[in-house]
Amino acid sequence: QVQLVESGGGLVQAGGSLRLSCAASGETTSTYVMGWFRQAPGKDREFVGQIPWSAGITFYADSVKDRFTISRDNAQTTMYLQMNSLKPDDTAVYYCAAATAPGTGFNVWGQGTQVTVSS
Fold this sequence. Notes:
The protein contains no helices and eleven strands.
């Protein structure tokens, strides 16, 4: 089983930047793809982006494209979400998630980290 722990959330002014981290432990060799999601108060959870855990193309939601960047370390134990040009609408709890096999969907989730962007 894979365990995920997010960190790096906080309060930032509009236009600022934050970097979130997602540390993966356990059976990380089984990870197929990892992603970031977010959920604002009163709203449904929203896909932010995803990155293949070995090789491939990184995808982003239109709402964050050109502002957010997902990356991972070479040891394949940590995923990052670099967030630039933050807007108040980016305020949400951010979750990292993992899909442990093709076709399973995201079946492992972290506990979430709060990001608040003030205007």
